[in-house]
Specification:
2 copies of one chain form a homodimer. The first copy, chain A, has about 350 residues and is of the alpha/beta class. Helices cover about 45% and strands about 15% of the residues of chain A. Chain A binds a DNA duplex (16 and 16 nucleotides) through helix 1, helix 3 and helix 5.
DNA sequence: TTGTACGCGTTATCAT
DNA sequence: ATGATAACGCGTACAA
């Protein structure tokens, strides 16, 4: 009774400043001469309402430009229309490009995507997890580090779809989108071999990294062993960052001053290696060739322009987001992951020793 | 009556699966033996409640791990708890760093920030504007290009707070956060002069750019004129990107092969200039010195490491976001903008000619 | 099939 | 200073 009066008064008020106000489910109901539940049904379960009314409602929705209020439905505990991208650092161009892929498909779905920069810090990761328990999100794209066991546990608690981008899980079957890192490492080695290099070194990522570390390392080794090139002790391990590339090249050069080519598992490490060489007045590529990995924006801007393995990083993000939405829409079938193709970008940092 | 019964039943239910459940304001209230209004006050306006009770409430909040439900408050106050960052491209490290500043303060406010990459494309900008008219946002940080007149018109329609980051508006008084670009250009010129350079060139941004273009150009000119160094026709104009730096250096070198130093209005253009020189076997910095602008992540990773003017870009983002939140909270007083300090980062790309 | 009314958690208003 | 309660917009159990 009292309730009803209030409601009417409320609607009455709203009519006045129309156009400014966002139409609600009530406005649509009135316009279409149905009840709010009918409107709600049309939106959420269209088949449950008679054709004729459905049309009326649909029309009213169009005319008034109705969009459900995400806070109201969020409060009621449904989808929040936002997904999360967990990445190490958006200021890293590699992840930034991936993010653009994610973002573009999210926009197509009229969805929001929230960035979480972990800075590779576990504490921050779990902080986010706690936050998500409150403020629900529909799904997660995880692109930070290899997926550790307790990270997985965190996801499990949330009980929402998670897909992996440029990484994968050994023990759990979460869908992932990535390239074939083993093959890519193999290809890098082969490229050097085909260019006549005999003594080849590598600056690898950490062996403990089951994605960008070990596979690239092993693919590379395989190519070398096949042609009986130098191997094993001509490999040094870094953390993908510039400084470890610089110092890694230093170690390598100390042990094997006769190296003619080096494969770095990231472009940043390749930059570091080149910096070391150039500061020692060792010419790249004439004396030592360098091949990188990632094809970041700046790899073409340095001197000499860097030959590198390109990951289709934008597409990885895009594909991962699409998989995620598939899963969100159809909660009970886990989508299958995908392998995307890498590509060798030939620029000027590798010399041909065959001639 | 009926109401009360329901409430009790509900709370009764909740007690059981505690630990799993997120505590609400009601749970805190009960625990602290106060009303929910008091709890709400403690959270939003602590000074309005007596010390003793406040402590009790605070303690209960700690113990139960209460966090306000953003959906509920969003529903109440019509704020969407999301702001928008309009930038050219998140894959550009300059904007990525700014974004991190924005994001970090947004997170403090338990807010979401949505990225809009315009790619410097007007069409995309207005697409976003249309989107915002539907799905409201609380405020905007604009960091894309100079603010054109019809962009401003777009904002006006939305009728929400907008603050400018690393840019400003000539005609409208939107708050902005930026450095003093004129002074920065002046400082760059002075640094070259103090290092004994006599014939100095510049690769500027477009003169039509009233922020990163003209002021840096004029500040630079002012320093040169003061000491009667070469000026005017030793300036060439680019678009801040790598390629224009490369070709710009080409033009400059064609006209003035005797130049000993060049100031580039962006690090990317500086990279381009260095690439041109190095490919001509002109040594940097021995034969030609280069100073850049921005201090992007990679400026220290090239050979030689780039001397440059550093914008506190993270802080610019952070400060802009804080201004925006001030404005959102207090809709009727436009906050005043801020000028932040730039800094000269001396590395190895400028030689000293005095000795 | 359709409509009514309650509850989600919070804040603001109004009494006290 | 504190407490009761309406209202925000939506979804859904239940009634019709």
């Amino acid at each position: 009774m009292k309730y009803n009066k209030k409601k009417n008064k409320c609607n009455g008020n709203r009519e006045r400043d129309y156009g400014l106000m966002n139409p609600t489910i009530h406005d649509i109901a009135k316009r279409a001469n149905v009840s709010i539940s009918t409107v709600s049904r049309v939106v959420n379960n269209p088949l449950a309402v008679r054709e004729e009314k459905r049309q009326r409602v649909l029309e009213a929705i169009k005319e008034l430009g109705y969009e459900p209020n995400p806070f109201a439905s969020g409060l009621r505990d449904r989808l929040t229309k936002t997904i999360v991208a967990i990445i190490p650092d958006i200021a890293n161009p590699f992840y930034a490009s991936m993010f653009r892929g994610i973002e573009d498909t999210a926009r197509e779905q009229r969805n929001n995507v929230m960035i979480c920069n972990t800075d590779r810090n576990e504490e921050r990761f779990f902080e986010y997890m706690r936050y998500f328990k409150k403020k629900k999100v529909d799904g997660i794209i995880f692109a930070s580090d290899p997926l550790k066991e307790h990270y997985y546990k965190g996801f499990e608690e949330l009980n929402i779809p998670v897909v992996l981008a440029a990484t994968k899980s050994e023990d759990h079957l979460l869908p992932y989108v990535k390239i074939d890192d083993y093959q890519a490492g193999y290809d890098a080695g082969m490229f050097l071999i085909r260019n006549g290099h005999k003594r080849i070194g590598m600056i690898s990522g950490p062996k403990s990294d089951p994605i960008a570390g070990q596979p690239r390392y092993e693919g590379f080794l395989a190519s070398l062993k096949k042609y009986e090139r130098l191997a094993d002790d001509s490999v040094v391990f870094g953390d993908f960052q510039y400084d470890s590339g610089y110092s890694g090249m230093g170690k390598l050069y100390g042990k094997h001053p006769d190296l003619t080519a080096v494969f770095a598992a990231s472009d940043e490490m390749a930059l570091g290696a080149m910096a070391f060489l150039q500061r020692r007045n060792i010419d790249v590529p004439r004396q030592v060739s360098v091949i990188g990995f990632d094809n970041i924006r700046f790899s073409r801007m340095i001197t000499p322009p860097l030959t590198t393995i390109s990951q289709p990083i934008y597409e990885i993000g895009k594909e991962a987001a699409m998989l995620l939405y598939d899963w969100i829409e159809n909660r009970d079938t886990i989508p299958k992951g995908k392998q995307l193709q890498h590509e060798l970008i030939v620029r000027d940092s590798v010399s041909n020793r065959n001639t």
